[in-house]
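Lecture notes, structural biology module. Today: joint structure prediction for complexes of two components.
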Amino acid sequence: MGINKKTQSCLAGLALMGWSVMAQAAWEFNFQVPATKAAQTVIDLHNLMMIVIMIIFIGVFAVMFYSVFKHRKSKGHQAAQFHDNTMVEIAWTVVPLLILVAMAWPATKALLNMRDTAQADITIKATGYQWKWGYDYLKGEGEGIRFISLTATPADQVRGTAPKGENYLLEVDRHLVVPVGKKIRMLTTATDVIHSWWVPALAVKQDAIPGYVRDTWFKAEKEGIYRGQCAELCGKDHAFMPIVVEVVSAEKYATWVEAQKKQMSAAADEVGKTYSLEELKSRGEKVYAANCVACHQANGKGLPPAFPALDGSKLAKGPMKDHVNIVLNGKPNTAMAAYGGQLGDGDIAAVVTYERNAWGNKTGDMVQPADIKAARK
Amino acid sequence: MEATHVHGAGHAHGDDHAHHPKGIMRWITTTNHKDIGTMYLWFSFAMFMVGGAMALIIRAELFQPGLQYVEPEFFNQMITLHGLIMVFGAIMPAFVGFANWMIPMMIGAPDMAFARMNNWSFWLLPPAGILLTASMFVPGGAAGTGWTLYPPLSIQMGIGMDMAIFAVHILGMSSIMGSINIVTTILNLRAPTMPLMRMPMFCWTWLITGYLLIAVMPVLAGAVTMILTDRHFGTSFFNAAGGGDPVLFQHIFWFFGHPEVYIIALPAFGVVSHVIPAFARKPIFGYTSMVYAIASIALISFIVWAHHMYVVGMPVAGQLYFMYATILIAVPTGVKVFNWVATMWRGSMTFETPMLFALGFLFLFTIGGFTGLVLSNTAVDVQLQDTYYVVAHFHYVMVAGALFSAFAAVYYWLPKWTGHMYDEKLGQWHFWLSIISFNIAFFPQHFLGLAGMPRRIPDYALQFTDFNQVSTYGAFGFGLSQLLFLYVVLKAIRGGEKAAAKPWEGATGLEWTVPSPAPYHTFEDPPVLTESKGHA
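The predicted structure, tokenised, for the full assembly:
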């Protein structure tokens, strides 16, 4: 039937393609270089399983292909008529079972280790928002530091109007900085939908579930920058909320903590200050660009009906109280998040002021940080 | 084989006077299992084309990094609809179609047990298909949640989500009625001389699948109804602020979702268990252990659901339990693979298109099974969950598994349906094009997943570019190859070499005792099976 030849040439072609693909280093085909013992354990486990699987696979299909080539009608092979063999059937039930039990043992050990979050040096909470991550240093050195980490890949790179950078889609404005060799316990939660905090080189992936707190941990063995992404579909910009963990020496970490604390105390002072309309607007434009454009768009037209327009909207031109309220507390069952926990009083005052005075909205209204502080109560 | 010898075969030829309306009314009012089977199969193929077009939109966007053709929200709608349409619109109806056509003929029954309900279960499908596809065109578009419809994301969606929920309800009703019908037919309408343990394997797989469907479709209906009431009636099943839990939905969904995998896989196993013995000219090896393996796979499928949820943060004891239970499934699945290989061993094989697809199934489904074993290992799964590795894994199971088996079934039974042999040369072209392009499309996705590419993203980091391009080439090749399949089927319908009642030398079973094409009514009197050691 000519299939024999066809089969052989096709298989040869496939194998050749496979090899030429493997030969090029640029084609990443395996786990990322591990930065934690847990990540190394995963790789070892995976390798072990692959070896066992390959042996079984080759064994089974050697038999099948032998049969396919030898026991064919075109070669005059007569069909045997056996159809049962109890011993064989028991053997191929029991032997795989034993192999699987043997494989379950290292898997159990690795898992128990992965889930042991006790005795952490530093505890950090990662909060998933649509579509960014917020970090709170809850315990250990750096306690009290909190910030939002936003994608740093510009929209024109995504749209193809600018060349893509080296870390395209895997870069953020503020790294999660942690010291090397310390056990970091990560708590995960979310405010809107389910996200998942994943850094492959650290072998850490934990869903961030709104209303609940989960935990996981890692202890980086090497200084460096490790990049990951949200791993649970969380809406429109799921692909655009990267995670960057920067592992630094203990000294560098101490310096970083110092600098963060200074910045935060400067921000706390601003509540007492009063700003001009122009100051608020220009600051608000930046806050808007970082937090609001994904849905409401740079031109304020939104993407109705899911993401309503702000330009000319009843909300942005109506009573100030409602506007501040929705920015602080969000709108239930929609993608509009509560920004009260993410942004300081100054930023919220600025962005509300901006929204009421940008595009066609010329209300001339402004709101001061002190008003926001009052509205929070 | 002796077992298939039928006394008084004259009855089996039945009467071919079809007392039915002509034209479109024939199809709307028909209660004939063959007509309904045909409609299921054409509906399935139409949905396969729609879902396939969506897959090509996805792959086109993923050809290079950056956003080129579609917006992220539309991309999310495409992955959702692709999944829902392929699972509920293409694969499931295809196997119900085979069941309708073949089960009555395999067991010597004149028709399905509930012929009118059979009509109703088919005609529920088009409205559901229309609801799903039309949801793209309503304000806000279709659900952009992935086929898993996880809340709270599904709570945020627009009216497209409600349409998807109603479509799932309707599809669920159709499936439940279809499976009640199949189970009843198999249990009550077998020829009196056919005991359960001599029943054809396809009937066994469908009997067990029928029970699975009846057990889990109501669970899915409950889950999506809870989303509906959370969305519109102020309940908080999945809203922590109201005392609910988003993860609850995942538990309910996967309690349906995992058996669903086997609802798709088991009838595929059944088809392969017919095709391999037929072309090896040798009885199936280990019939009894095959039946037990199917039953144990079905039972275990109820107790492994949370292996889809290893990273939601369940207690470690839960993770361990679900890991062990999942690993256990490899045992009966292995038994089936070994049995198929043993069936071929020392046979007298020929390699017509059905056999090629069955072998393709066996080879690639085993790869999908092995990657499933890798994923069952919780510690490893933490790295692979929600990556392209998972996408590769389930496409090996769903496409190379279920779909290839469906192709095998079509080529195997097409002579019986149409009375014509299909074009063997083109059929083999279809096989080789499909299997090669399938592997080009999906094998690289294992590498993407290992290297850390999340699934369900319209844009990706630069290091994933090369394999994504390869995958897109493969996907387009695979999609275009299916047009050849359509051509081969149409060609066989319109003409071709006349098919004998039993066109395959090694085929066994009652369906081959009636003429080709099968008369409109068959087995109005039950056939009598003679004693034999083998199985029908």
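Point to remember: Chain A touches chain B through 110 residues (CB under 8 Å).
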